[in-house]
Amino acid sequence: MRNRLNLQEQLLAWYGKHQRVMPWRALKGKTPDPYHVWLSEIMLQQTTVVTVGPYFLKFISKWPTVKDLATAKLDDVLAAWAGLGYYARARNLHKCAQVIATQYNGKFPSLQETLLELPGIGPYTAAAISSIAFNQPAVAVDGNVERVVSRFFAIEEPLPASKEILRAHAAQLAEANTHPGDFTQAFMELGATICTPRKPRCGSCPWQKACKARSKGIAEDLPRKTLKAKNPVRYGKVFWIQKKSGEFLIEKRIGKGLYEGMFQLPTTEWTDKPDTKTLPHPYGKHMRFKSLEATIRHTFTHFDLVLEIWAARPGRNFRIPAGRFISVAEIEAYALPSLMRKVMKLCLKSKIA
After folding, report:
1. Beta-sheet strand order (sheet of 290-299)
2. Could you give the angle at the alpha carbon of 295 between the alpha carbons of 292 and 301, nearest 5°?
């Protein structure tokens, strides 16, 4: 490998000129705020920078410090998170804030090993916080870094089997650099803006001369990936119960797992096969439901969901066994996931007898 220090200097020089301005990124010459680094890294997991920006600004406006976030109600945190997806992140975010506030007096620990003990913080996030916020010699390897490393060394073993190899090579490139925080961000920035999944801009890359994949003409083919099995499909029915005044019924999802603690439109259980019953729901005893002859398909990480939509007006004697009626104007006060918002938008356009 070419001189490692030269490679580090080239990358840092490139980053100094081309780094993007982001609301969580410290300005040049300023010390990064660990709270901002942590919050942004949790939000950015499996979510784009463009999507995260407004959410990040909303969070730090509502809760300027980690202690403020720790004292917030979980329902309020989930409501502010609604639309970002992967809601376990929000629940762990709240738990972690409480641990930081109570056990560490609102101060984030700087060591990677200690950060790993906190709720919702895995190896990548711990390394990112440790290096970016505290300039510790930790190597944060995300998808962008994996792509850069696989191309730089022309590693053709497919992901995910090659993850440990890529991590070892990333550590090799980062070893003994004197600006760990900037190097971590530069590494990720290179993958996000230059060494992109499609049509990498090799001519603008500070490492182009040393890149083995470029010299072989296979940069766009890497990293190779093992074909993912097709997601299984699950099925259910969702119920739009709307008063003539426009208010509609939502319920709080109970139990552990997906959408835990969030609000939803009433649904049946989600099953592996479509339910052929006309209306397997207790509300059917109190009102006349009509199929909207529409379905919503939503992709989760491990399965796809297909929901039939049924609608009805609540009768005069209808009593809510659970949940509450809300107006469209009140939506932002509740943690309603994007799947349910899709259903809501479709139903609002439909006429219910």
Report:
1. 233-241, 304-312, 290-299
2. 155
Q: For residue 208, how many C-alpha atoms fall within 13 Å in the half-sphere facing its CB?
A: 9
Inter-residue contact 173 to 183 (CB < 8 Å): no
**Would you tell me how many other CB atoms lie within 10 Å of the CB of residue 64?**
11
Residue 249: both structure tokens together: 């019924």
The DSSP output letter for 320 is: -
Write the CA distances from 114 to 31, 93, 108, integer angstroms.
Answer: 21, 16, 9
pTM of the predicted structure, to 2 decimals: 0.86
The angle at the Cα of 111, spanning 105 to 112, to the nearest 5 degrees, equals 120
pLDDT (tens digit, 0 to 9) for every residue of the chain, 353 residues total?
558 889 999 999 999 999 999 999 998 888 999 999 999 999 999 899 999 999 999 999 999 999 999 999 999 999 999 989 889 999 999 999 999 999 999 999 999 999 999 999 999 999 999 999 999 999 899 999 999 999 999 999 999 999 999 999 999 999 988 899 999 999 999 999 999 999 999 999 999 999 999 999 999 999 999 988 889 999 999 999 999 889 999 998 877 778 888 899 998 889 998 877 655 455 656 678 888 888 999 998 889 999 999 998 887 777 776 789 999 999 888 888 889 999 999 998 887 76
Residue with tokens 């300039």: 135
For residue 40, what are the CA distances in angstroms to 57, 126, 231, 239, 324?
A: 10, 13, 29, 35, 33
Q: Which residues are catalytic?
A: 41
- Name, in order, each residue with C-beta under 8 angstroms of 93's C-beta and a sequence gap of 6 or more: 39, 42, 69, 77, 81, 120
